[in-house]
Amino acid sequence: MSTTNQSEQKANRNQKQPKPKSNNHSVERKRKRSRSYEEELTETNKQTRKQQKKKQKAEKRKLKRSRRRIFPIWLRIIVVLLLAGAALIGGLMIGFGVIGDGDPKDALNKETWQHIIDIIKKE
Q1: What is the DSSP string of 33-98?
Q2: Measured CA angle at 71 (ends 68, 77), to 5 deg
Q3: pLDDT tens digits for the chain (123 residues)?
Q4: Is pTM beyond 0.85 here?
Q5: Structural domain contains residue 118
Q6: Which spans does this entry mark as compositional bias, Basic residues (predicted)?
Q7: Residues contacting 108, CB < 8 A, separation 6+
Q8: Counting beta carbons within 10 angstroms of the beta carbon of residue 92, is it exposed (0 to 12), middle (13 to 18) or buried (19 or more)?
């Protein structure tokens, strides 16, 4: 007996419940609205959206923690420039000393670069 009752209960659960009938009065009201009323409604919605956005921004500002940079931006710029200069000097020394079969320290001499410029401009 208990198994038949359980199966009946499951069958009852699986049946779809009828949907409640919608209120026809609200549908008729929506149809009767004029354009001006619709425009007013959208304007008020826009105003409330703007107000909501302003409130959200104000809350974000309040909740936002101030950020203390351990490595300041101006120091980052200096470090990047120094690293770029070191890469340039390292590249010159490798190019002149290793690839060009010269002394790597000669790449830093002013006379070496003056000689290279003279060779280029003499034609």
Answers
A1: --HHHHHHHHHHHHHHHHHHHHHHHHHHHHHPPPPPPSS-HHHHHHHHHHHHHHHHHHHHHIIIII
A2: 130
A3: 555 566 666 655 655 555 555 555 555 555 555 666 666 667 677 678 778 888 888 887 777 777 778 889 999 999 999 999 999 999 999 998 888 888 888 889 999 899 989 999 986
A4: no
A5: yes
A6: 47-65
A7: 89, 92, 93
A8: middle
In a domain, 95, yes or no: yes
Domain with 122, as residue range(s), is 90-123
Number of domain units in the chain: 1
Q: What does the DSSP 8-state code read for residue 99?
A: I
In a domain, 99, yes or no: yes
120 half-sphere exposure, CB direction, 13 A CA radius? 6
Contact 70, 58 (CB under 8 A): no
> Per the domain annotation, does 8 fall within a domain?
no
Report the first-to-last Cα separation within the chain, whole angstroms. 112
